[in-house]
Amino acid sequence: METSWDDESLTALRVALSTRTGAVVDLVRRRLTDEVLQLVGDALIAAVDDHIDGAHEVAAQCAAALRLRDWTGDADLADPLEAALGMSATPMLRPVAVDLEELSSLLEGDPAYGGGRIDLRTGQTWPTMNFDDAFDDETDDDPDRWLYVRCTGSRAGYRDMELFIESVADPAVADRLDIAITGRGAFRRFKDVLSRWPDEVHRYWLFADERRRGRARGWLADEGYRPRPPLGPVG
């Protein structure tokens, strides 16, 4: 099973996302697949707000695809997309400029070291060990500045592997991967076995990143916040 997003196109997409240009709309216009819905959704909200040509159509397609897929966090992205399009009211969530990949690392990292805080003023994430070294006791209890993040562990990540295996077209490959995730050390064995098929490795990381991003968004919504659409020059 192939993906329409190779390394080159993903690099181009991430560059466009970092600069908030109309290139995001152009890049996803003809291949708005499940692999990038969570990745591009916030940028599409910004593109609609900036009246980028074609943004309205692509944002509507993204919202519809999120509703249909309905993974964790998908509705939490479809809501502001539809609000930007004038289809519904804006969700009553406070915006924070947090990176969902960084938040996911706090949520789903090693329980022994995971967890941390989000600086609500800047959106920066702070793992617990780094926070303790950088701040004194007088600043670490301000609820208007800090949002605590408790590590939820790897259970959701394990479920990602199970769901990915179900999507593998080759029964022999799927069977080997299914055996690999049995027992202790499942994540390491899964990656070792999966490495024999580079195309599947690429597809898995797209799949897992998209699901982790959605879970981070869902957690943030439960706490009363939403990621702030990217700010920057429009081109």
Summarize the structure.
The protein is mainly α.
What is the secondary structure topology, with strand pairs?
Layout lengths: L6 H13 L3 H6 L8 H13 L5 H15 L4 H11 L9 E3 L3 H9 L7 E4 L5 E3 H7 L11 E4 L5 H13 L3 H10 L5 H9 L3 H25 L2 E3 L8
Parallel strand pairs: 1-5
Antiparallel strand pairs: 2-3, 2-4
Helix pairs in contact: 3-4, 3-5, 4-5, 5-11, 6-11, 8-9, 8-11, 9-10
Q: Helix count?
A: 11
Question: Could you tell me how far the N terminus lies from the C terminus, measured between alpha carbons in angstroms?
Answer: 35 Å
Major sheet strand order = 3-2-4
- Kindly state the percentage of residues in helix: 55-70%
The helix/strand series, from N terminus to C terminus, equals HHHHHEHEEHEHHHHE
Question: How many structural domains can be distinguished in the coordinates?
Answer: 2
Any idea what the shape is? globular
| % residues in beta strands | 5-15%
* Secondary structural class: mainly alpha
Nearest-integer average pLDDT: 91
Task: Let me know the largest β-sheet.
Answer: 3 strands, antiparallel
E-strand count: 5
Low-confidence stretches: none
How big is the Rg?
Answer: 19 Å
Overview of this protein structure:
This protein is mainly alpha-helical. The chain has two domains: 7-92; 93-229, no CATH class. The protein is 56% helix and 7% strand. The longest helix has 25 residues, at 198-222.
